[in-house]
Design a protein that fits this description.
The structure holds two protein chains of two kinds.
Chain A: E1 2-13, E2 16-28, E3 33-37, H1 44-51, E4 59-64, E5 67-68, H2 74-84, E6 85-88, H3 100-111, H4 115-128, H5 144-156, E7 162-166, H6 174-189, E8 193-198, H7 201-206, E9 209-214, E10 217-223
Parallel strand pairs in A: 3-8, 3-9, 6-7, 7-8
Antiparallel strand pairs in A: 1-2, 1-4, 4-5, 9-10
Helix pairs in contact in A: 3-4, 3-5, 4-5, 5-6
Chain B: H1 3-15, H2 18-55, E1 60-65, H3 87-92, E2 99-114, E3 117-126, H4 129-133, E4 138-141, E5 155-158, H5 160-167, E6 176-179, E7 182-190, E8 204-208, H6 209-215, E9 223-228, H7 234-248, E10 255-259, H8 260-303, H9 305-313, H10 318-354, H11 364-391, H12 394-398
Parallel strand pairs in B: 3-8, 5-7
Antiparallel strand pairs in B: 1-9, 1-10, 2-3, 2-6, 2-9, 4-7, 5-8, 6-7
Helix pairs in contact in B: 1-10, 2-8, 2-10, 2-11, 8-10, 8-11, 10-11
Classes of the chains: A alpha/beta, B alpha+beta.
Chain lengths: ~220, ~400
């Protein structure tokens, strides 16, 4: 489903060209649970951003569901992000002035879904993550774990095929981190591809497939049987 | 994304930052209000002047001796003085079918006295037609008698103010007043009608034109007032006047005919231009408001960088981000314009109450133009911040760099 070949990403830092990714080749199948691990600066977030179409590779081919994404326009890429990809971030990135329900509703609004259809979908997504009672709360009235679960509800409201999670527990205590991971794994069990970026080996070991990155290269690509 | 959602999102975004929203709305409100107020004042001035001119009379033409236009040709070596207008000239004008009434006018100033009181006032020599043309009405007694205008009778109609000053509360009718070195019987008092263009009907004596000519020892007229039959007959009447006078003055075009309409339209143009330029000056404040909007929106973009990154990540293309931010600045300026309208409404109300005689009026086009310009300002000055937002790199925006 996800096919990357010869991906290069170069950042210009002053006079120096930094290879964030060099010659990355990767094929991921639908429904997989993948952990991308590595020290900071190893290029794991850059890889995730490229898979999520937030960033474009300088070289290489990236095919998502047999569509070459490098040729897509800004509008088309946005449409792919809207319908096929859900993001979960380390810092949640909830809009502070909107309630939990409104934050979850945002992707539906952007997609132009009719208001009458939006409400039940938002309610369903919130209750699936055990947040029904928090719908009217603003992010600053929620705990970290609740915020991240609102973000997961937002990421999944459009029924994407792929969930990209960049250090989803990085800002959470152990308990709420466990809840969040549980929520993400539940989604994976329902068939969504889950790609998790983390530097926590405990978390990484839960994944069925581990990708170890160092200096922009894939060092190890192991699959648990 | 549906338009309703765009608007709702923008309103939520603006109300999320009340202080800056209030500032922008205030600036825009002041700009819009000042444009509307100043145009209303200009429009009021135009209407005021128009009213004054209309009060002069309807379908009015004024015949003056002498040409006002310069023409080529040899210099007037023989001292080409224009011929005077005479009473006969005036009377001959009634021959034209386009002309309804003619009032010859002789003007002078003379002391008027009764018993021991005397006053120096303007003496107007004319015919009863003057009352019709200038819409003068009589409060007491009657108008000067019709009949052969070339024969003067010793009667006069006096202004209400003069009556009060000379006669007090006594009835002046039938009394003999002395004007200059002659005696005139007072037969009427003019009604109070307010001032119209410099001539105060309160401080005036009207006597038959022939009597005035005898009083001031002249055979010429100051001017002739002509009333055309209809509005459409004004050009025809003008032509008739010129040809009749030319025939009587041995082929010389030595009079000037001013039509009231020409005067009116000249003043109308002047005041419209004035209104427009005042509105232009006022719209500078709209531009200032626009710059404030730009400033505030730029701050909003940098404050909401992560939000923009997030919107991009969950599938908003740059175009949509641009639309959202443009909508936000447009909504800010429209709300400002709405408050400006309310402000202008109350200000004109207050003005109208303070100066009831000045016909202040907000022209319909000014309301539309002010709102339109406000909206345009919001959009134009919103473009730069919105483009900046749309162009943000989502990865950098999300990392807050």
């Amino acid at each position: 489903m996800i096919y990357l070949a010869g991906i290069e990403r170069i950042f210009q830092v002053g006079d120096e060209a930094v290879h964030a990714l060099s010659n990355v080749n990767l094929t991921l199948n639908a429904g997989e649970y993948i952990a991308i691990m590595g020290p900071s600066g190893s290029g794991k977030s850059t890889l995730l951003n490229i898979i999520g179409l937030l960033d474009r590779p300088d070289r290489g081919v990236y095919r998502l569901e047999d569509v070459d994404t490098t040729d897509l326009t800004d509008d088309q890429q946005a449409s792919v992000r809207r319908h096929k990809i859900g993001f979960v971030f380390q810092f949640f990135h909830l809009v502070p002035r909107l309630t939990a329900a409104e934050n979850v509703e945002l992707p539906l609004i952007l997609a132009g879904v009719a208001p009458a259809e939006r409400q039940p979908r938002v309610q369903a997504a919130l209750s699936a993550l055990g947040l029904s009672g928090r719908a009217k709360h603003r992010p600053d009235q929620l705990s970290g774990g609740q915020r991240q679960r609102v973000a997961i509800a937002r990421a999944t409201i459009m029924q994407p095929n792929v969930i990209l999670a960049d250090e989803p527990t990085g800002n959470l205590d152990r308990n709420s981190g466990k809840d969040v991971i549980q929520s993400l794994e539940d989604l994976n069990k329902k068939g969504m591809t889950l790609i998790l970026v983390t530097h926590d080996p405990d978390l990484g070991s839960r994944a069925l497939r581990k990708i170890q990155m160092v200096d922009g290269k894939i060092l190890e690509n192991t699959r648990a049987s | 994304m549906k338009i309703r959602d765009v608007i709702q999102f923008s309103i939520r975004a603006s109300s999320g930052y009340p202080t800056r929203t209030l500032l922008v709305v205030l600036a825009m409100a002041i700009g819009v209000a000042s444009v509307i107020l100043l145009t209303a004042l200009g429009e009021g001035a135009r209407r005021y002047v128009k009213r004054e001119f209309t009060a002069l009379g309807t379908h009015l033409l004024i015949v003056l001796p002498g040409r006002s236009e310069t023409t080529g040709g040899p210099p007037p070596l023989l001292g080409e003085t224009p011929r005077d207008l005479t009473l006969e000239d005036a009377l001959s004008l009634t021959r034209s079918s386009a002309i309804r009434r003619v009032a010859p006018i002789t003007v002078g100033s003379a002391p008027v006295s009764w018993k021991h009181r005397d006053r120096e006032v303007t003496i107007l020599g004319s015919t009863p037609e003057l009352f019709e043309i200038r819409h003068l009405s009589i409060a007491q007694g009657r108008s000067i008698p019709s009949g052969d205008p070339t024969r003067g009778t010793a009667v006069c109609v006096i202004g209400y103010k003069l009556k009060k000053e000379l006669f007090g509360n006594q009835s002046p009718l039938g009394e003999w007043a002395r004007i200059g070195d002659r005696r005139f019987r007072v037969i009427g008092v003019l009604a109070q009608k307010g001032q119209s263009l410099g001539m105060d009907p309160g401080d005036l004596v009207i006597i038959p034109v022939a009597s005035a000519q005898a009083l001031f020892n002249t055979s010429s007229l100051f001017r002739i007032l002509v009333q055309a039959n209809t509005r459409d007959a004004i050009p025809k009447a003008k032509k008739a006047i010129l040809s009749i006078i030319r025939a009587r003055h041995e082929g010389e075009d030595d009079v000037t005919v001013i039509t009231q309409d020409a005067l009116l339209s000249t003043f109308d143009r002047i005041f419209t231009a004035l209104t427009l330029s005042v509105a232009g000056i006022a719209s500078i404040s709209l531009a200032v408001a626009g710059i404030l909007i730009m400033n505030v929106m730029l701050i909003a973009v940098s404050r909401r960088t992560t939000e923009i990154g997030l919107l991009k990540a969950i599938g908003a293309p740059g175009r949509q981000i641009l639309r959202l931010f443009l909508a936000e600045s447009a909504i800010l300026s429209l709300i400002g314009a709405a408050f400006g309208l309310i402000l202008a409404f109350f200000a004109t109300r207050g003005f109208a109450r303070a100066f009831p005689s000045f016909p202040i009026k907000v022209p319909f086009w000014a309301v539309g133009a002010a709102i339109g310009v406000a909206l345009l300002t919001g959009l134009v000055f919103g473009v730069l911040p919105a483009r900046r937002a749309a162009k943000l790199d989502p990865v950098q925006a999300l990392s807050g760099r």
